[in-house]
TrEMBL record:
Originating organism: Streptomyces erythrogriseus
Coiled coil as UniProt keyword: yes
NCBIfam families listed in its UniProt record: CM_M_hiGC-arch, PRK07857.1
Record-linked PROSITE patterns: CHORISMATE_MUT_2 (PS51168)
Residue ranges occupied by any Chorismate mutase domain in the UniProt entry: 17-98
Coiled coil: 16-43
Superkingdom: Bacteria
Name under which the protein is recorded: Chorismate mutase
Keyword list, A-Z: Coiled coil
A Pfam family assignment: CM_2
Length: 98
């Protein structure tokens, strides 16, 4: 039987050493995933900049709204309503506010 302490273990909020260890390990994995996500977002921003530059240079508009609608639908379909907000944030990071 695992003993329950009255104070959280470490900074995890857990009440057992076992739970604290599991939480710490999971948080390390989340931190690594966040680093990868940030890297991918930066890569997406760079690719988007190339697209915008070429579109504008060819006489087009900076933003292609039909393409953005496709992206919003993709994220919404995959992640539900919060996916739409995530896609909007990505679009804003990649093209700025319109």
């Amino acid at each position: 039987m695992t003993a329950i302490t009255t104070e959280p273990t470490e900074k995890t909020g857990a009440r057992t050493a076992e739970a604290a260890e599991l939480i710490s390990d999971a948080r390390e994995r989340i931190d690594a995933l966040d680093d990868r996500i940030i890297g991918l977002v930066r890569e997406r921003m760079a690719v988007s900049a190339v697209i915008q530059k070429e579109r504008i240079a060819s006489g087009g508009r900076r933003v292609n709204l039909s393409r953005e609608m496709e992206i919003l639908a993709t994220y919404r379909d995959a992640l539900g309503r919060p996916g739409t907000a995530l896609a909007m944030t990505l679009l804003e990071l990649c093209r700025g506010k319109i």
